[in-house]
Amino acid sequence: MLGELICNISQHSDGKYGYIFSQCLSHKEKCINICIADDGISVFGSYVKARRYLDIIDSNEMEALRLANEGYSTKDLPESENRGFGISTTKRMLVEGLKGDFFMLSGSAFHRHDVNGSDYVKLPDMMNWMGTIVLMRIPIDVPQNFNYMEYVIR
Fold first, then answer.
1. Structural element, H or E, at residue 22
2. Could you tell me if 67 and 57 are in contact, meaning their C-beta atoms sit under 8 angstroms apart?
3. How confident is the model at residue 77 (pLDDT cuts 50, 70, 90)?
């Protein structure tokens, strides 16, 4: 799960810095929080730079965030049919399999996905992160029926 999100920094962000933070909340919350962030061009900026899906996203950062979370890659690699599924597969494994939480902030768009559902929000103009932040809340107690192979793309 972490490898895909960390690789996205070097492959897509054009940022100068990448950050990884973690926190173990073992008593009350019983989870591990992992935050991965960069100071790059944002998800929207990555689509614009790659000149991909511009007809869909137009100037809408929230729409770009939705596309990235649904598996629409900025890479033009027809021979690599599984490209672009890293975020969506990671998120599915975390939320559906492990019963965790996934949050993503990029530019002025925010996405939340947890066991209660999924939302995309356009934030006010004064709330803007130049880059991308991903927060994963991973439960310490793994569900007994969890099998990571169900989430591996073959």
1. strand 18-25
2. yes
3. low
